[in-house]
Please model this.
Amino acid sequence: MTTEPGTPRPTVERNNARTRWLHAAVYTTVLVLLLTGWWLTLGQEGRPSPLSELTGQSDAELHTAIGWVLTGVAVLGAVAGWRAARTLLTDSVRFRRTDLRWFARWPGAVVTGRFARHEGHFDPGQRLANLALIVLLLVLIVTGVGLWSVSGGPAFVWFNRLHRWATYVFTPVIVGHVLIASGILPGYRGVWRAMHLGGRLRRRDAQRVWPGWLERTDAAASAVKAEGGDGTGDGDEPRQARFH
Amino acid sequence: MEIVEPTGGAEISVPFTLVVDSSEELGPTDTGNHHVHVYFDGDDSSYEVIESGNGEEHEITVDSPAMEGVEPGEHTLNVSLRNADHSAAGAEAEVTVTVGEEGSGGSPSDDEDDESEEPPDYDY
Model:
């Protein structure tokens, strides 16, 4: 498909490759941890799960090992991508009074796609989910390291209690996130492309879900073009276009 | 840690009674106490978890994960003391036992009873 010079491409890059790889590493490890963790919680310890049979490791060993991988990924992401991590946090805690209208229309918009306008890099619901996931992942990682470090005893009881309750809250949040991000709900159709494959989604999907972000991205791309760039949006959309 | 029952060289039939004695207090993971993994022939990929009592009787049935793949014949019965986080606590014990045919020592099965019964009469 060719694009006329100066015409915006029909898709827009939402997330760069580094972000997508980090997201993939987190969701792969989290998926394994949820499967092995729930397997053990549901009283299946000693009976190898399909994952355990596949790897030859017991579910408890697998859970611990992958827990360390997730810890490493989280530390690496926070250190190597500290700027992106800071942006994720600041964009997620920024709420406006007008976001209330977005929440009010959300239940219907999930089906119709007619979301109320918001200016955020993330939509208001996504911001709440981001905050919940960040806090819960942090609790799960810290308590997981705690469980490993004490092995047993009174401190283990408390780490275990926190780890379990964080999992009980984390699981439905993740299920909701997957339900929305998968695009099964009509209002969110097509958004899965933002974090997979090339990280580019159709402009009409971006316009529907993240209108303010798309406008800022287009404006910044035009500015680049005016300064001598090609401005076609082919990898030059500024990803740091934010609202203040 | 010690296996009190079955004793070394014993012939066992499934289900069988297991009694272990440990210096540590045993309990479920959420108590922070130790527990015991029971398995055969050093293969701890499938195991039974003992979470209560020292010197208490535990019945290992045919449905136990520890019995997975265990054929009749001579086997090593292993027990391993575990920390609450499932890591090895160091203490282990084993005995050699001969596992008999499945159910050979158990109570007569319902199926056997069924075979001895007359088929029901139906009036059409």
About this structure: Chain A is about 65% helix and 0% strand.
